[in-house]
Each structure stands twice: as structure tokens, then as C-alpha cells.
Design goal:
497 residues, alpha/beta, Amidase signature (AS) enzymes, two-stranded antiparallel sheet, 13 strands, Amidase_dom, AS_sf, Amidase, Amidase_CS
Length: 497
């Protein structure tokens, strides 16, 4: 059997490893090719501004991985030689971790984040750190250090956020895998806006240790990729117990041997998929998203699923009062600084706020956060924690009543916002971040093409179910992906000669 020629654009973990085994590709060649695309498109050409730091030792690391592959005759880790882009709030001991902020531009953590340690141990190569919404506070992916990230499908639009740099970079084929953090919907928003797959895991499955925080309660870290299988490969590596983040004790024994190996292309056959009317818009501005979502439902039905439409009385009022990040931010950030290591340019949240280096909207947000003296003892905070439990029960009870395997909805009810808007409107991330239940976002289709969006703007669907159902959710998304192959690469970053 002849191995097909390796194609860099839309490359996957499997296609890269097949080329390594065939001897037609080395990690050095792969990294050189990605670096060429970064050089051509990140600050030149469409000028996506997706990245903040490119690993200066990437080629040196690639050579080491090639030597290891040869010495071990290919018996290496599951991500060996796979380039990864980290959102720049994941600590790296060999590169700055800035959160997109000018005052943090020289911050050098003393150790890698727990998940980064696991990636390196699996053989991954950290190629770059991505631009983001500053300190992950918001959804349009603009920072004082890196400026505005642009969406490669429509250069007049944002890439979602806060992990928008990772989203734009993977959509533009700057690497294979990426990471995001998700307080509200910050993994899933850029997945939706860039025709990618994003996973917000169950609370306790993946460590937040060494990831710059917003919230003790809402924060999660997870994978972003171009395919469901690649997202599953990265989740395999990221999941695990970390004493630094004790909540991960809840996830011990809950992960399968491999999320990637458990994928089932026939998972939609016999599945009951709930369509929650509370999460869909009814105005003319919602028409494009609704059209794509209706087509997604028809596809799922054609694959053997039963679609159950329903609404949840009381959901909207309750969901509007479950956010806890404002009350937790000060204590969470001070804990991060205390663990960062010696000789840092910023050592406390107070010093950071007083530096006044953040972009105006983020500065205003942080000043409101630090004004709360003891947020964890605040009566409103305690009420919101109770509301989170109420929302979990409300959603779980409706799923049990209707015998649902998952709930389907658009991550965003309207197309992703134009650049220059201060916020990302009408996102549905609260169903996951307000309950702690896992969610998987995946490409559903595209809006009608326009002059600025020649193939349309990506529209992402999301599936959610109860705790530790990631194998089922990933399989449902995988079955849809295999039936539709909905993802298409952007035209603004074509193959290089």
C-alpha cells in the first residue's frame, strides 16, 4: 500500500505520524514548514496577529525529537513531533507567559503548567504562545501586548475569544494542536468562529495548575484542534490528577484508556439529541445560524438520531445569575502570583492593576474585581454558588425526563462579532460553565458567502451532557464530522509555494 504524499495544510496527528513512519517527513521539516506559514501570514499578508511568541528553540527541539525517534525506532510518545500552540496564559518555563499584557511581557514562570508538562512528556513540541483577550477577560481577542487578532475566514471580524489567537492560528494551519482556557466559553467561542473542535471538560478532569486564572469555580483548560480525533488525542494527554489543583481528584478513574480510541463513527444511530429552544434566537439577525443548525439536525436524523425539541422554564433567569468569576478573580490571581516563582516583574494582583498597562476595557474590569475586598464571603457570591447547583439539577432533570444523550445548540446565536466591537454577543457558554457539565464544539457549517467572507463565516454547534460523558460527546461530534466534513480551510492563508 502506497502512503499518500504528505500535505501540510489540514495535517492531523495521524497523517504526520504516518509520514514519520514512512520516512517521508521529519519533525525538522514539519516545523520549518509551519514557521514559514507563520512568517507569511501572522504579521504579513492577512496579518492575523494570532501569536505573541514563537519558540526560539523550535528547530533545536525538532532536531532532538528526530534523533530520539531514530534512536527509539519510532517507539515514542503519542504526540511525538506534534507542534502545539499554547494560549499565552499557560505557564512555560522556557518562554514568557504574559496573558497578553505589557506589564507581564517578561514574566518567566519557574515551571511549566501541569498540562504542558504532560504534553512535553508525550513528545509534543511547543511551537508558539498565542495572542488572546487580555487576561482571558472577554471574547474578542484583543490585548495590550498583541493587538487585535483577526479571523482568517473574514478579516473584518474577530476570531471569538478569549482563546482567539489559538483559534486563528489553527484555522490558518500554523500548527496541529492548541490549548485554550474557558471561564465562560473561551475554548468554544474560537472553535465556533474558526471551524474547529473545542472541548470544555468536566470540572476535575483537566488541571488548571499553572494556567493564569479568572475563577476557582468556572475555569477549565482544554484542547482545540481541526478534527475531533485530534482534540481527543490532546485530551488523552491533558487529563489527569494534579496535586496542585486538588479538584482533579474528582476525575481520577473517570477517563477511558483513550478518548481517541473510543471514537465511534456510528454514535448518532439511536441517539436522542435534545434541541433546547432557550438557546436559539428568533430575530432576523439569528437567521444564518438557525439555518445551519437546522441543517445539522437533519444530518443527525439522517444518521439515525432522534431530535427532541424542548424548552426549560426558568432557565433564562437562573442562568443570568450563576457567574462567580468577578468575586473570585482577586483571590485566584493572587494565588497564581504566589506560585509563579521568584524575580517576576509583577507579584500581586494589586501591582498588576496599579500598573494600568491593560487595555481600557480590561483595566476597568480588573478595577471592579479588585474593589471586592473579600469576594468569597460575599452574600451575592454565595447566592450564585447555590444557583449553580440549581442549574445543574434543572438541566440534569430535563435530560432524564426526556431520556436525552446530549443537548444540541449553537455556541453563538449570531455570527462572530466584527473587529472593533468591545464584546462578543449572544453566546451560549453558560449551559456548560454554569453547570460544570462538559461540552464539545464542532464545525456545523458556514454562513452565506460575502465579499469579506468568500466561503462564509464559520458557525459552530455544541453538544453538552452530564459529568464525564466526554467519550459520548466526542463520538457524537465525530459521527457528525465524518458524515459532513463541514470544515473548510480559510482562503486568506493558502498553501505556500
Amino acid at each position: 500500500m502506497t502512503t499518500p504524499p504528505f500535505a501540510l495544510e489540514e495535517a492531523t496527528v495521524d497523517s504526520i505520524h504516518a509520514a514519520y513512519r514512512a520516512g517521508t517527513l521529519t519533525t525538522m521539516q514539519l516545523v520549518q514548514a509551519y514557521l514559514a506559514r507563520i512568517d507569511a501570514y501572522d504579521r504579513k499578508g492577512p496579518a492575523l496577529r494570532a501569536l505573541l511568541t514563537v519558540n526560539p528553540k523550535a528547530l533545536e527541539e525538532a532536531a532532538r525529537l528526530d534523533a530520539e525517534y531514530k534512536a527509539k525506532k519510532g517507539q515514542v510518545g503519542p504526540l511525538h513531533g506534534i507542534p502545539v500552540i499554547l494560549k499565552d496564559n499557560f505557564d512555560t518555563k522556557d518562554m514568557p507567559t504574559t496573558g497578553g499584557n505589557l506589564a507581564m511581557r517578561d514574566s518567566r514562570p519557574s515551571a511549566d503548567a501541569f498540562t504542558v508538562q504532560r504534553m512535553r512528556a508525550a513528545g509534543a513540541l511547543i511551537l508558539a504562545k498565542s495572542n488572546l483577550q487580555e487576561f482571558a477577560r472577554g471574547g474578542v481577542s484583543v490585548s495590550s501586548l498583541g493587538g487585535q487578532v483577526l479571523n482568517p475566514y473574514d478579516l473584518t471580524r474577530t476570531p471569538g475569544g478569549s482563546s482567539g489567537g489559538t483559534g486563528a492560528a489553527l484555522a490558518a494551519n500554523f500548527a496541529v494542536l492548541g490549548t485554550g482556557s474557558d471561564t465562560g466559553q473561551s475554548i468554544r467561542s474560537p472553535a465556533s468562529a474558526n471551524a474547529l473542535v473545542g472541548v470544555r471538560p468536566t470540572r476535575g478532569l483537566v488541571s488548571r495548575g499553572g494556567v493564569m486564572p479568572n475563577s476557582f469555580t468556572q475555569d477549565e483548560a482544554g484542547p482545540i484542534a481541526r478534527t475531533v480525533k485530534d482534540a481527543a488525542y490532546l485530551l488523552d494527554v491533558m487529563a489527569g490528577f494534579d496535586p496542585r489543583d486538588p479538584v482533579t481528584a474528582l476525575g481520577v478513574g473517570k477517563a477511558p484508556a483513550s478518548y481517541a480510541a473510543a471514537l465511534d463513527a456510528s454514535a448518532l444511530r439511536g441517539a436522542r439529541i435534545g434541541v433546547m429552544g432557550n438557546l436559539y434566537g428568533k430575530e432576523p439577525r439569528h437567521a444564518e445560524v438557525n439555518r445551519v443548525m437546522e441543517q445539522a439536525m437533519r444530518t443527525m436524523e439522517a444518521q439515525g438520531a432522534t431530535v427532541v425539541r424542548f424548552s426549560v422554564p426558568g432557565f433564562d433567569a437562573l442562568a443570568a445569575n450563576v457567574g462567580t468569576d468577578r468575586w473570585e478573580a482577586r483571590a485566584a490571581f493572587d494565588k497564581y502570583f504566589a506560585e509563579l516563582g521568584p524575580r517576576q516583574p509583577v507579584t500581586s494582583f494589586r501591582q498588576l492593576v496599579d500598573s494600568r498597562t491593560a487595555s481600557p476595557d480590561i483595566q476597568k474590569t480588573m478595577e471592579a474585581e479588585i474593589a471586592i475586598e473579600d469576594g468569597l464571603a460575599n452574600a451575592t457570591y454565595r447566592e450564585r454558588m447555590l444557583n449553580r447547583d440549581k442549574l445543574r439539577v434543572l438541566v440534569a432533570a430535563k435530560m432524564a425526563e426526556l431520556k436525552l444523550d446530549a443537548i444540541l445548540y449553537p455556541l453563538q446565536r449570531v455570527l462572530v462579532a466584527p473587529a472593533g466591537q468591545p464584546d462578543q454577543p449572544e453566546r451560549n457558554g453558560v449551559l456548560s460553565h454554569g453547570t460544570g457539565f462538559p461540552a464539545v464544539t464542532f464545525p456545523a457549517g458556514f454562513s452565506t458567502p460575502t465579499a469579506t467572507a468568500p466561503i462564509g463565516v464559520p458557525i459552530g454547534a455544541e453538544l453538552l451532557a452530564l459529568d464525564y460523558t466526554e467519550p459520548r460527546l466526542l463520538s457524537l461530534a465525530y459521527a457528525f464530522e465524518q458524515a459532513t466534513h463541514a470544515r473548510k480551510p480559510p482562503q486568506s492563508t493558502p498553501p505556500l509555494d
